[in-house]
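During the no-cost extension, the postdoctoral fellow (Dr. R.K.) reprocessed legacy sequence entries with the updated structure-token encoder. One reprocessed record is reproduced below for audit purposes.
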Amino acid sequence: MPGQDFNVTDPIFEWAQRAPYAVAIIDGSEIIHYRTLWAAVRRAMSTFHEAGWQPGDVIAISMRGSFALQMTVSLALARAAIAQVWLPPHDPIEYRLALARNLDVKAVITDDDQGRLEPIESWSVDAGWLSTWETAAVPSDRRVHGAGRTLIFIQSSGTTGTPKEIVVTHDDERTFAARNNHHSACWPGERCMFLTGLQFWTGLARSLRCLANGAAIVTPPPNRTMADLKRAIDLHGVTYLWCAPLHVNGLLEGIDDDLPRLAGLRFFCCSSGALSLAATQEARRRISPNLSIQYGSNEAGGITAAPPVLVERYPDCVGLPLPGIELQVVDENDQPVPIDTLGHVRIRGASISPARMRDAAPGATVAYKGDWFYPGDIGLRNAEGILFLKGRSDEVMNFNGIMIGPDAIESVLRGHPAVRDAAAFPVPSPVHQDIPAAAVVLRSPVSLMELSHFCTRHLGNRAPRLLFVVHSIPRSAIGKVQRRRLTEFALAQVVAARGRGEG
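Re-encoded structure tokens follow.
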């Protein structure tokens, strides 16, 4: 059990004492050592203390500028046991304001006017916190123990209903970090790059764990083409790269055939969503053979992991359960299904509890049944216990009693040489329940009739009945397909076609 005198920033503070001139952050042309970073954190904490902020208060962060400054603010709040919530300035102001009021946010820390949330008090931060301070000028450490205290509020996926705030305590993060370090620990002195920003829990958690292990964070280049990324990785000696499927697909799209792979990567991991079989194979071939896959959720942290040797054998898998995770695949009656049989994924383990869902009584959310958490995924396990995801429970389409997962359709369509990207989704029907449909982004001309025949050859009666050509697939900030928007688009197209007398 975690001790009572614990704060997630303690390991970072220890590195600042042990190796003060080790590099902590490389932010563009700026190199920040652990000593400098920690002096900036102390100065920020002193400012927060003077403002009257107390342990347990909730402070929002709404910043878009310097990564190093954002990291300083986050560490200072954590060190003072002040809860934080990230409200990106590009989110609608109505959404940010509603969330801030729901959490009783005391103030908003921002680095530009876009982050302000009137009438909530705003605090403008200063890059001067990152100046080098002599030891005598550094304010005293006002560290507060974090045991049982909220570190951050994050958002649930919302796949089973309205998104809810999830409480992550200092103890939770220590549990998650220990679990993930089994698979994805970075090394002291190693240089790490995360393509997911701090406004996402994945990006912030990875950054905290990187610094806790004595490694350095290298901010990615503004233009995240494969060429730009390779130059930055080569320049700074990056050996550890973490990203989401959105980033992998973007990198693959921009790769020139003659561009060498990122041979210097020791660790290359994709998480925060499913990577298609075709994308996995291409990423191993064209980016790095050291590709790892991790499956997790905001509610549970890391769930499974597949190291490169497993990805090579089973490129469509998400791996084996991480230490401390019990995983089952069950049927509609919550009974475990046989090997190689589709069912609902459920897990349990430390720090996985409905109590972490803010303002939700035990059992109030359908994601939990007893101490089991249901991430909302459909999958199967093979004889080795390896997990393969086949879609989301709420995304599986029922076409005349035939259950169809979107991933199968998408994988086939992306395998056609004329298709750049694809997404499958349902179109509701009073006769068929769900008509399977798909939207495609083309790289070269092709008829919808040809694509339809191509799908039928590979999928039989699970082929999409409706196909649409679009300019881009609507996705969330971390790359998850927004299928509801595609359904609305398709319905509008059907209505318009009927109005023209075409259907």
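The domain at 397-499 is CATH 3.30.300.30 (GMP Synthetase; Chain A, domain 3). The first helix runs from residue 10 to 18. The remaining legacy entries will be reprocessed before the final report is submitted.
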